[in-house]
Amino acid sequence: MPNVIDSNGKVVRDVATPAIFEADYSAKAHTIFRAVYREFASPRAGTASTKKRDEIAGGGRKPWKQKGTGRARQGSIRSPQWRHGGVVFGPQPRSYVTDLNKKERKLAFVAALSDRFKNGAITVLDASSFAIAKTADFAKLVFGSAKDAKTGPTTLVVLGKGEAKADAIHRVARNLRRVGVTDTSALDVKDVLRYDRIIFTTAAFDAVSGVTLGNGSSK
């Protein structure tokens, strides 16, 4: 059951864990793996390219006669063993996009968040009265002190769509090396797993609580 804290870091109440995150997803580890693999692989450009020997200009003439020179026989200066020669089995332009259907992507997201809920790594921030203007004060809110911000657990702050205090939170968090800020529309599986803990604003928590695995639902 996550704690709800105010802008001073004081626990004001608890909030119930959404029922969907209380289910057992221990058998879905491979689905999570596939989702993370897709999120890392799909953005790759896939533009690495090398030329094979038949794509390199020149080399049509045999460099020296077959016999009598005492040197190894050669048929072309564009053979792979020559400098500037062709590359054997080198990379060619390709797409790294990996398919994963919508239901599996959503299941991986829910399973990853469920693990965070069960391990007590979720906190909710009531940002309605957020008035922090200094990074040191925000570090105190997140880590307990500015000093602990250098060694404390990595923390992801998740904002709701159209969050009123979004600009203020981005401003005070941007110089904290161990803090990331995103919103519910950009939150994905690799973000959930990358950070040691997650702080949702109340708006973000309400949005995430509405996630379902039924048809037509969205993250």
Description:
By secondary structure, the protein is an alpha/beta fold. It contains six helices and six strands. The two termini are 21 Å apart.
Summarize the helix and strand pattern as letters. Answer: EEHHEHEHEHEH
Shape: elongated
| Strand percent estimate | 5-15%
Number of strands: 6
Estimated helix fraction? 25-40%
- CATH names the topology of the largest domain as Ribosomal Protein L4, Chain: A
Largest sheet: 6 strands, mixed
Q: What is the number of independent domains?
A: 2
The overall pLDDT average reads 92
End-to-end separation in angstroms reads 21 Å
Oligomer: single chain
Compute the CA-based radius of gyration: 27 Å
As residue ranges, the low-confidence spans are: 215-219
Q: What is the CATH architecture annotation of the largest domain?
A: 3-Layer(aba) Sandwich
> What structural category do the secondary elements indicate?
alpha/beta
CATH class of the largest domain: Alpha Beta
Say which CATH homologous superfamily of the largest domain is assigned: Ribosomal protein L4/L1
Our count of helices gives 6
Lateral strand order in the biggest sheet: 2-1-3-6-4-5
